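We were asked to recover a plausible sequence for a given structure. The inputs and outputs are reproduced exactly as logged, with field labels preserved.

PROBLEM: sequence recovery
POSITIONS: 181
GIVEN STRUCTURE:
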C-alpha cells in the first residue's frame, strides 16, 4: 500500500505544478514572459504556441519584447495578442513586438489576488478529490485489516493536509508579490 501513498503524492505534486503554472499567467505588475503562456498563433494553418515562435524577453522590467524567428508573421502574432486575455498595449515596430506592462492599480491588484485565491480553491478541491479516490481504494481492499485501513487513511489525510498547506503558502507568497508596489 506504500505505492498508493506514492501515487497520491505524485498526483498532488502534479496539481501543485498546475497551480503554479496558472499563477504564472496572472499579471503582477511586473513584466513576466509567462503571462504569454497559452497564446496560440495561426501559423500556416496550425495553432502554434507563441513561445515556440520566437524569443520572449523582459526589457526594463516593464516591457516584454517578442523577437520572432519568422518576421513575416508579425501581423498574425500582433492579432493573436490583441485577441488574447492580456488587454495590454502592444506595438509592432516592423521587426519586434513590444508589450508594455503598466503598474497595476490597487483595484486591479485586488482583482488579481481574488483570481489567485479562486485558483487556489480549485486546486485544493482537486487535492481533496485525490484524497477521496485514495480512501476509496483503501476501503475497497478487503485484504487489509481494519486497523491498517485506519492507519493508511490517517497517512492519506496527513499527505492531503501537507499539500493544502503548500497551496496556501504559495498563495500567500503570490499575494504579497502582487500587493507590493
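RECOVERED SEQUENCE:
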Amino acid at each position: 500500500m506504500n505505492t498508493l501513498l506514492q501515487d497520491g503524492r505524485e498526483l498532488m505534486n502534479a496539481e501543485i505544478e498546475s497551480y503554479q503554472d496558472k499563477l504564472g499567467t496572472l499579471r503582477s505588475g511586473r513584466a513576466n514572459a509567462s503571462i504569454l503562456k497559452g497564446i496560440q498563433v495561426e501559423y500556416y494553418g496550425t495553432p502554434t504556441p507563441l513561445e515556440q515562435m520566437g524569443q520572449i524577453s523582459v526589457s526594463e522590467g516593464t516591457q516584454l519584447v517578442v523577437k520572432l524567428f519568422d518576421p513575416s508573421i508579425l501581423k498574425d502574432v500582433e492579432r493573436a495578442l490583441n485577441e488574447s486575455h492580456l488587454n495590454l498595449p502592444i506595438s509592432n515596430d516592423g521587426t519586434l513586438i513590444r508589450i508594455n506592462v503598466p503598474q497595476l492599480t490597487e483595484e486591479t491588484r485586488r482583482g488579481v489576488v481574488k483570481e489567485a485565491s479562486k485558483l487556489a480553491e480549485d486546486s485544493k478541491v482537486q487535492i481533496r478529490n485525490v484524497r477521496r479516490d485514495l480512501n476509496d481504494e483503501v476501503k475497497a481492499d478487503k485484504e487489509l485489516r481494519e486497523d491498517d485501513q485506519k492507519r493508511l487513511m490517517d497517512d492519506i489525510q496527513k499527505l492531503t493536509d501537507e499539500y493544502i498547506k503548500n497551496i496556501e503558502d504559495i498563495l500567500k507568497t503570490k499575494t504579497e508579490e502582487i500587493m507590493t508596489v
